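Journal club side-thread
Mid-discussion, someone asked how the predicted structure for our own chain would compare to the paper's figures. Pasting it here so we can look after the session.
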Amino acid sequence: MTTTAPRPSRTDARGNGAPRRGRLRTWLSAGGAAVAVGYLARRRTRPESAVEADGVKVVVPRRPHGGAWGAVRSGARARAAIAARTLRVDRWWVQPAITFAVLIAFVGYSSFRAFQAAHYFSEPYISPFYSPCLTTACEGNTFPKLWTGPAWISPAIYILIFPLGFRLTCYYYRKAYYRSFWLSPPACAVAEPHRRYTGETRLPLVGQNLHRYFWYFAIIFNGILTYDAVLAFRDRNGHWGHMGLGTLVLVANAVLLWLYSLSCHSCRHIVGGRLNSFSRHPLRYRFWGFVSKLNGRHMQLAWVSLFGVALTDLYVYLLALGVFTDPRFF
């Protein structure tokens, strides 16, 4: 009987292959680890490469393969090391300069009027800088007098902190005076002079988070100024049913302040920002839509209402000085 021996396998013919495969895997693992360590070390020491291409120094972000020239050849994005502050050729500085001048003028005028403590009432009109007038030293009788303050403190000092805080923390005004006063940044595509950016996480800018609370006080003040506009429909003797040019001025000022306050981003969030389903709150959804439309004009309303407050105070100031008399319609 003839038997055939089994053919030896390739592993048996060459010897035991398991140890060789184990050594091969060890070598590959060691080699991969060495390459990874070298690559990481290179990234730490050379985070980016500078390449001279056609006489222009181009800073190329680090790439996992190909090096700096490989990144350039592969069309990777590179940023130029620009020594100039900006490449803009238009008059980008005009807008922040105008904003700076207007805000300085308003701060100067309002400070003068607030500390003057005089010529802020002309029957039946009262300046918005002094309303509500809460001390016994107040001129006129448009609001209950709650206490007797020191004679050297202007009645405006007690109340201006609330409308001032509302405008100072306003989202748009923050953009305006950040650019015009702090140059952070002065305009789009223009480098700012500050070396680092910390946002609104430190004093005093952390106080900007109080904006939503100042909004509640602004609504109260708007109601009081609306009450002053209603009182303006009287004559000098206190009789109702009369109207003069000052009446229109106070009414327009109250309307502008309401529009500015309702267009506020915080108002939009308070009205509908916390709702998960508008369909369950149809009235709030409609009001949210109205406020959203106003919010698109928030910048314009911020400026118009600012001029409105200043011009209303100026009108009452001139009447109190006797520069002219209030034109009466009926």
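Post-session note: The first strand starts at residue 48 and ends at 53.
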